[in-house]
UniProtKB/TrEMBL annotation:
Signal sequence coordinates: 1-26
PROSITE patterns per UniProt: PHYTOCYANIN (PS51485)
Coiled coil ranges: none
GO cellular component: endomembrane system; plasma membrane; side of membrane
Lineage of origin: Eukaryota, Viridiplantae, Streptophyta, Embryophyta, Tracheophyta
Region entry Disordered, spans: 130-158
Protein name, as recorded: Mavicyanin-like
Keyword Glycoprotein in annotation: yes
Length: 180
């Protein structure tokens, strides 16, 4: 009986550790898909905002900007509205900029090349927290790196993972009640 109790305690500990960890569902997004980060065609000034509205960004995701002879800047809402690039919160011009979404809120991006923002090379991204219950807080992220990326595939598996984890937590609770 003592061996069975020890085994049950070990099993309970392992299951508790396994299901207390949060699953990571971070995605990589290629800004503008095939178009990349460039002045939009046909003076489509809402091109990037339409692209952003088709995606769901969460804390932990990464957005990738690919461009030639250009730059990307994170700016304040006011600088976004007026296409001002004099005080960026973040700046990169290496052609392959990786921007990690570290906080929920609204982020504003523009091109740093004169005239590009006015022609539509700008974008607003709304980043959701992992819990989905909190709305965007409006606090921008500024600690980012550069790199390359791949596009995400649409996935809504987080709900299924949460249900599975909840069911297993109930099973663990029942097992612990039986043996303790």
């Amino acid at each position: 009986m003592a061996l069975l109790t020890s085994f049950a305690k070990l099993l309970l500990l392992l299951l508790t550790l396994l299901f207390s960890m949060q699953p990571s569902n971070a995605f990589d997004f290629e800004v503008g898909d095939e178009e990349g980060w460039a002045v939009p065609p046909s003076r489509n000034t809402q091109f990037y905002n339409h692209w952003a509205s088709r995606n769901r960004f969460q804390v932990g995701d990464t957005i990738h900007f690919k461009y030639k002879k250009d730059s990307v800047m994170e700016v304040s809402e006011e600088d976004y509205e007026h296409c001002r690039s004099s005080h960026p919160l973040f700046f990169s011009n290496n052609g392959k900029t990786e921007f990690k979404l570290e906080d929920s809120g609204t982020l504003y991006f523009i091109s740093g090349v004169a005239g590009h923002c006015e022609r539509g090379q700008r974008m607003i991204i709304k980043v959701l927290s992992h819990s989905h219950s909190e709305g965007p807080s409006g606090s921008p992220s500024s600690s980012n790196q550069t790199g390359s990326s791949t596009s995400p595939e649409s996935s809504d598996s987080s709900g299924a993972l949460q249900v599975t984890a909840s069911v297993l937590e109930v099973i663990v609770l029942l097992v612990s009640l039986l043996f303790f």
